[in-house]
Amino acid sequence: MLKGIRCETAKCPVEKKQRNLAPGMHGWRRGRTSEYAVRLREKQKVKRYYGLLERQFMRYFHKAERIKGNTGETLLQLLERRLDNVVYKLNFAPSRKAARQIIAHGHISVNGRKVDISDYTTKVGDRITVKGSEKSVKKVKEQLESNPNFTTQSWLQLAREKPEATIVALPARDDVQIPVEEQLVVEFCSR
Description:
Structural class: alpha+beta
Number of helices: 7
Oligomer: single chain
Shape: extended
CATH class: Alpha Beta
Distance between the termini: 58 Å
CATH topology: Structural Genomics Hypothetical 15.5 Kd Protein In mrcA-pckA Intergenic Region, Chain A
CATH architecture: Roll
Order of helices and strands: HHHHHEEEHEEH
């Protein structure tokens, strides 16, 4: 009813049969993605989510391979326990990149010692605190107050008053919130 006169011809853009093709002249050439491409995409998804380079990611994968148990779950558990990820999950920083910067500038200490390596792997029982300087505490408290409905995950325990947290357990697969099939990542990396 509201279509123009052009829609009465075969060139109608509304009812064109080629709508499910990719844009461009060669859109019809795009085929089904291979199994290799699917597995590569899953690995890239994990790398980008945690902000890792290839060498760092492969180091974590080889470490996960050596640990007994499911390699995929162990890999995700190791990545979740990185200090920059923990600082982000505690809502001390708005993003993982910001968490890396906070750590690199020396605002975070683990068990009373200043740690400026965002790659640091935390353990059960570690106490993560913000440096005692007024500037550091103010920055973290502002971030905590900006999102008052934020709840920490079950493996982390946060004391909001004195920005301090404790790791009470290892993260489970349910705590990893990225939609990734870790088995495909394992298949890709172990070939």
